[in-house]
Design brief:
InterPro entries: DEAD/DEAH_box_helicase_dom, Hel308_SKI2-like, Helicase_ATP-bd, Helicase_C-like, P-loop_NTPase. It is built from 26 helices and 27 strands. It is elongated. The strands form six sheets. Strands 5-4-3-2-1-6-7 form a seven-stranded mixed sheet. Strands 10-18-25-22-19-21-20 form a seven-stranded mixed sheet, with helices on both faces. Strands 13-14-12-15-16-11-17 form a seven-stranded parallel sheet, with helices on both faces. α18 links the parallel β20 and β21. It is an alpha/beta fold. The chain starts with a helix and ends with a helix. α5 runs parallel beside α7 and α16 crosses α17.
Length: 686
């Protein structure tokens, strides 16, 4: 047999019960394996039986063949997992033939399978009370994934788990992570460090503001924050349009406030402060009333105006108008007089990249610029508006600033470090894990004396209530389905540290002012769509405030192989690592036929034959000729005049598809409530 085997590199011996497993290797490959049985003789232990394993059967061989193989071997190794007495027996037997053997640490799983796999302190991975090789540990991890129902975990998630396995060298800890374990050393994906740029801070005493605003500002601050100082140094108070890109809680909102309030007090036109959501408009309206109410008149205009435009809350003569994009756009589409506008602040300008809301913001900006330019032509003492665009997250800031014809003010400082964590759980387990995280965070205090508080983001209003009910510490749901008073009560309670957590929808992520130290993602979806990198970064940026916390914490709870709608092409574990590793998307507005028709119709209503000029300066590429043709075909316009149908469609922000759905239902005698139900179902299907 030795002639058939040829050269032997390693002969490996491992105890199996009363006998010994023999593995013969050459060039790192197993040549064969056998079972050796020893007997006691007058000369000491000697081979008694030697059986070569062939598949499921054993082939007996002359015991002397073992000795011949051992003599041909370049090295003989004995597994350290072999009992000490058995190791001594093997060494005594080999000494009788003047052969030497070295005891080595090996993988027990490999040895049991007839493989020689030495391990070292650097490669050994703890598994229960034993240590195994990395390959066996990975196979055990795969078996655990299959057993736990996470067998379809995507490549990025499996790579992450395998990296953790090699880092920790502890299979048990990784398996615990798959069961929702919260060991921060294991769950931590990375830490986004706090950064500080060297900026010369502008003293507030050096500002040339209206005396009333100057005094108020100096009472609040000795110096401006870095991003505010950069803005002032780059022409904020000289009327220069600016795109201000800076992380959450760095103070960029004050840039727009100071410019707008100052111009309003100096009689240079009112301030329009625009946000994407009604909840944000209400919050900002209250902030302006509290802060500047003694200096200026503040009013609010939101999208509900298109349903009930009685003007109860809206005063067009006010010095400051806080509004939603849609609320101001409705005023433009219906020919309302907004007065002389001195400053327009567009908060969350990255909304330009969003599907339905993006093209409407793009169109509204163009229409509002046309309104200001047209008014300036008619009024000698009105020079038009200054535009200030604000965003925490933009992938292409230079390009966007150029498109908006604005000076880019970019400040990349993060005021506090943020730890980002990932753990795995199914949908039923996530509230339990969130509860542990909320409890742990609320039981801690920062060096500034504030208890840790949590924002939990999920993907539906129903889920907000479900999670909130399962949290042991005080918490509250917070979403657009609550009325204004209910939301203000939650905001006040959170600000007073009476709540350990709020559970909110991803749709309310932008600008919601909760000073939280921790953000937990129960879901990575917004409705039935996965979050973008930009949305994800915006939301996790809510974790950690410099005046409250020493650091922020973000926990992403991942359900392997989960989707929230059958139209989703990726699974939650795949999305999680795409978001954590992803690059910020560019902000651009894309127009399909429906969006192009909607904005062109609104531009015709506002500017008539000049609509093409408004289309041409929008960020997105609007095919004006085709859009006009479709509007004529659909009887939304007659020449460059809107028809009554066109006006109704535009003032209610209907897409052509929705407009025709309503028309068909009306013509078929469908009851109004049934039409509304039909529209809701259509929205869910989309």
């Amino acid at each position: 047999m030795s002639q058939q085997v040829g050269r032997v590199d390693t002969l490996f011996l491992h105890q199996t019960g009363e006998n010994y497993l023999v593995v013969v290797e050459r060039d790192g490959e197993r040549v064969f394996r056998a079972v050796l049985e020893l007997k006691e003789t007058n000369a000491g232990p000697r081979p008694a039986k030697f059986r070569v394993k062939r598949g499921s059967s054993d082939e007996p061989r002359d015991p002397s063949q073992f000795v011949e193989l051992a003599r041909r071997a370049s090295r003989i190794r004995i597994s350290q997992q072999t009992a000490p007495s058995a190791r001594e027996e093997l060494k005594e037997m080999l000494d009788g033939y003047q052969l030497e053997a070295v005891a080595v640490r090996t993988c027990r799983y490999c040895a049991s399978s007839g493989r020689y796999s030495p391990i070292t302190e650097e490669t050994a991975i703890k598994a229960d009370r034993d240590h195994i090789c990395p390959d066996c540990a990975k196979r055990e991890l795969e078996r655990e994934l299959d057993f736990s129902g996470a067998g379809s975990l995507t490549g990025a998630a499996q790579d992450r788990l395998e990296d953790l396995l090699l880092e920790t060298k502890d299979l048990d800890r990784i398996e615990n992570l798959l069961k929702g374990g919260l060991d921060p050393d294991l769950t931590r994906f990375d830490t986004v460090s706090a950064t500080t740029d060297d900026i010369d801070l502008v003293p507030t005493s050096s500002l040339d503001l209206h005396p009333k605003l100057q005094g108020l500002t100096e009472d609040r601050f000795d110096t401006l924050l870095p991003v505010q100082s950069l803005s002032v140094d780059n022409g904020l108070f000289e009327g220069r349009d600016q795109l201000v890109v800076s992380a959450t809680a760095t103070g960029k909102t004050l840039v727009g406030e100071l410019a707008g309030i100052d111009r309003a007090l100096k009689g240079e036109g009112k301030l329009l402060f625009l946000v994407p959501l009604v909840a944000l408009a209400n919050q900002k309206h209250e902030d302006f009333e509290d802060r500047y109410g003694d200096l200026v008149d503040v009013t609010i205009r939101v999208g509900a105006s298109r349903i009930n435009d009685d003007g109860n809350r809206f005063d067009p003569g006010a010095d400051v108008i806080v509004g939603t994009y849609e609320g101001i756009d409705h005023a433009l589409r219906t020919g309302k007089d907004l007065g002389d506008i001195g400053t327009v602040v567009i908060d969350e300008v990255h909304t330009l990249k969003e599907g339905e809301r993006g093209h409407r913001l793009d169109g509204m900006i163009s229409r509002l610029k046309y309104y200001c330019e047209n008014r300036a032509k008619r009024r000698e003492n009105y020079g038009g508006a200054q535009w200030v665009y604000l965003s925490a997250t933009v992938g292409n800031p230079e390009v966007l600033a150029q498109s908006l014809e604005a000076t880019l003010i970019e400040f990349e400082e993060r005021p506090v470090p943020i730890e980002r964590h990932v753990t795995f759980a199914d949908g039923r387990e996530k509230p339990e894990i969130a509860d542990k995280l909320v409890t742990r965070e609320f039981d801690t205090k920062s060096s500034k004396g504030y208890r840790g508080q949590t924002i939990i983001f999920t993907n539906s209003r129903r889920r907000c209530h479900e999670i909130s009910r399962k949290l042991q510490y005080s918490s509250a749901p917070y979403h657009a389905g609550l009325d204004y008073g209910q939301r203000k009560r939650v905001e006040r309670q959170f600000g007073n540290q009476d709540l350990a957590a709020v559970v909110t929808t991803a749709a309310l992520a932008a600008g919601v002012d909760f000073p939280a130290s921790q953000v937990v993602f129960d879901s990575l979806a917004m409705g039935i769509e996965w979050l973008s990198v930009q949305e994800f970064e915006q939301m996790l940026g809510r974790a950690g405030r410099p005046d409250y916390h020493d650091k922020g914490k973000v926990y992403v709870l991942v359900e392997p192989d989960c989707v929230y709608h059958n139209t989703m092409e990726m699974t939650e574990d795949e999305v999680a690592f795409k978001l954590l590793k992803g690059e910020m998307e560019d902000v651009m507005t894309v127009y399909d036929e429906s969006a192009a028709a909607e904005e062109t119709l609104a531009n015709i209503i506002v500017a008539g034959k000049r609509a093409k000029r408004l289309n041409d300066r929008m960020l997105g590429d609007v095919p004006t000729k085709h859009a006009v043709g479709k509007l004529l075909e659909w009887d939304f316009i007659d020449g460059f005049e809107p028809t009554p149908l066109g006006r109704a469609v535009s003032r209610h922000f209907l897409s052509p598809t929705d407009a025709f759905r309503i028309l068909d239902n009306v013509r078929n005698g469908v009851e109004p409530y049934d039409i509304v139900a039909d529209m809701e179902l259509a929205d869910e299907e989309r």
